[in-house]
TrEMBL record:
The lineage of its organism: Bacteria, Pseudomonadati, Pseudomonadota, Alphaproteobacteria, Rhodospirillales. This is Amino acid dehydrogenase. Gene3D superfamilies: D-Amino Acid Oxidase, subunit A, domain 2 (3.30.9.10), FAD/NAD(P)-binding domain (3.50.50.60). GO terms for molecular function: D-amino-acid dehydrogenase activity. Residues 2-399 form the FAD dependent oxidoreductase domain. Keywords: Oxidoreductase. Pfam families: DAO. Belongs to the DadA oxidoreductase family. The keyword Oxidoreductase applies. NCBIfam families: PRK00711.1. InterPro entries: FAD-dep_OxRdtase, FAD/NAD-bd_sf. One of its GO terms (cellular component) is cytoplasm. GO terms for biological process: D-alanine catabolic process.
Length: 416
C-alpha cells in the first residue's frame, strides 16, 4: 500500500519506520528542510515513563493564576484574544480534577512504558545512534514537604508496574556522583531505574537517513496546503511547490500546526501550542557533568547529557504560536541547574531555543480516523512526545492495518 506520512518530526519518522517494516511504500512530507526541525529539534531528551504525570491537575489552576502576577512559575498563562486559547484552556481546566488527573496519568504511563519497549526494539533493529543514556533518571526535591508529596505521587505510576524508589541524598549521589558536592541541598529524590535519555533530533534524523537508504521517500520543503477527496477517502494531498501527492492511506502527524489543516478534513483537533524553552551547552574537558538526567522538581527544570553536550529545559507557556525568546527567558533555568551542577557544562556558550508542544487538554495523544476512513491521526503528544513516539508509531501502523493495538486506546481515540 502507498502511505503518505504528513510530518517528519519524531512521531512521523518513527511511524514511517513501522509502516516500512509492515511492507508499505512510504512517503514522508514536511514543510521544513530537515526532519525534526520543529518540536523535536531541542526538547528535553528525557525518555521518562517515571514522569508521565498529566499537567492538568488540581494544582494547575492556581499556578496559572499566579503566573499572571509572579515571574518564575512553571506554567505561564499569557492572555490573548485568540478564541482557541480560551476554548482549549476551558477543556484543560475541566481535566484538573483529581479523578481525571488519575485517569489521564495512568493512560499516559501505560503508553510510555509500551513505547519504551518499542524504542529498544527499533534501536536494536536499526543500530541508530542517538546519544542514549541508560541508568535511570533522578527526580530531585529540595524541601521535605515537596519530597513527601513527590514520593506519595509515585503510587499512581507504580500501580501500573513501574518501579520508582524514594531515596536519600546520599543514595542519589551514589547514582550520580556529580551530585556529591551539592547533595545537602536536597531533602531526597525519586529514582526511576528504567528511565533513560537521548537526543530526539539525532534519533529522528538518523532514523530518517536509515529509512531513505531503504527506499522511503522524504519530500522536504513541501508544505501541505489541502486535500483531494472522493467519497469517504482522501486521494491526495495538495502542496505548495511540490504538486499533488497521491496515496492509498495517510498518517496525520503534523503536531502543533495540525489543527489548521485538520479543519479541511472536518476534524477539530483539541491541540494547542504550549511553548517551552531549552538551552544546550558544551560540556568541555574539565567539568563535572551529570552522569544521568533528571528534574529539579521544585523548579521544574529538566536536564540531560547528550555525549559532549548538556541540555536544560523548563517552562510551559500558554502563548500561542509565538516562538520568540531572549536570554532573559533562560535566567531561571540556568540559575537552577548551576546550583546543582556548578561545573556541569561550559555555561559561557549557551545555544538558546524555544519550541511549541502540541498539547491536548488531557495530555494524551489522538489516534484513529474521522470523516475519511484512510486518514489516520497520530498527533497531540504534548510534552513527552519523544517518550511516546515509538509506541504511538506501532499503534498507528496497527490501526492502519486493521489490527487491534497492544494498548487499550480509551480516551485517546479521535472524537469525530
Amino acid at each position: 500500500m502507498r502511505v503518505a506520512v504528513l510530518g517528519a518530526g519524531v512521531i512521523g519518522v518513527t511511524t514511517a519506520y513501522e509502516l516500512m517494516k509492515d511492507g508499505h511504500q512510504v512517503t514522508v512530507i514536511d514543510r521544513l528542510p530537515e526532519a525534526a526541525s520543529e518540536t523535536s529539534f531541542a526538547n528535553a531528551g528525557l525518555f521518562s515513563p517515571g514522569h508521565a504525570y498529566t499537567w492538568a491537575s488540581p494544582k494547575a489552576p492556581r499556578i496559572l493564576l499566579k503566573s499572571l502576577f509572579q515571574e518564575g512559575q512553571a506554567l505561564r498563562f499569557k492572555p490573548s484574544l485568540d478564541p482557541n486559547l480560551w476554548l482549549w484552556s476551558l477543556k484543560f481546566l475541566q481535566n484538573c480534577t483529581a479523578e481525571k488527573t488519575r485517569i489521564n496519568t495512568k493512560r499516559k504511563v501505560r503508553l510510555c512504558m509500551y513505547s519504551q519497549e518499542q524504542l529498544h526494539r527499533i534501536a536494536s533493529e536499526t543500530g541508530v545512534e542517538y546519544h542514549g543514556l541508560t541508568g535511570g533518571l533522578l527526580y530531585l526535591y529540595r524541601s521535605p514537604a515537596s519530597f513527601a508529596r513527590g514520593s506519595a505521587n509515585t503510587r499512581i505510576l507504580s500501580e501500573e508496574g513501574l518501579e520508582l524508589r524514594a531515596i536519600t541524598p546520599d543514595e542519589a549521589a551514589r547514582i550520580d556522583p556529580a551530585l556529591e558536592p551539592v547533595k545537602e541541598k536536597f531533602a531526597g529524590a525519586v529514582y526511576c531505574p528504567s528511565d533513560e535519555s537521548g537526543d530526539a533530533r539525532v534519533f529522528t534524523r538518523n532514523l530518517a537517513a536509515y529509512l531513505e537508504s531503504r527506499g522511503v521517500a522524504f519530500r522536504y520543503g513541501t508544505e501541505i496546503t489541502g486535500f483531494e477527496t472522493a467519497g469517504d477517502s482522501v486521494t491526495a494531498v495538495q502542496t505548495n511547490g511540490g504538486g499533488r501527492i497521491e496515496a492509498d492511506a495517510f498518517i496525520f502527524a503534523l503536531g502543533v500546526y495540525g489543527p489548521r489543516l485538520s479543519r479541511q478534513l472536518g476534524v477539530r483537533l483539541p491541540i494547542y501550542p504550549i511553548k517551552g524553552y531549552s538551552v544546550t551547552m558544551p560540556i568541555g574537558g574539565a567539568n563535572n557533568p551529570p552522569t544521568v538526567g533528571g528534574v529539579d522538581e521544585d523548579n521544574l527544570v529538566a536536564y540531560a547529557r547528550f555525549g559532549d553536550r548538556m541540555r536544560v529545559t523548563a517552562t510551559a507557556e500558554f502563548a500561542g504560536y509565538d516562538k520568540s525568546h531572549s536570554p532573559a527567558d533562560f535566567t531561571h533555568m540556568l540559575a537552577a541547574v548551576k546550583d546543582i551542577y556548578p561545573n556541569g557544562a561550559d555555561y559561557t556558550q549557551p545555544s538558546y531555543w524555544a519550541g511549541l508542544r502540541p498539547m491536548t487538554p488531557e495530555g494524551t495523544p489522538i489516534f484513529g480516523t474521522g470523516r475519511y476512513r484512510n486518514m489516520h491521526f497520530n498527533t497531540g503528544h504534548g510534552h513527552i512526545g519523544w517518550t511516546m513516539a515509538p509506541g504511538s508509531a506501532r499503534i498507528a501502523a496497527d490501526l492502519l492495518a486493521g489490527k487491534t493495538p497492544a494498548l487499550d486506546l480509551a480516551g485517546m481515540k479521535l472524537e469525530a
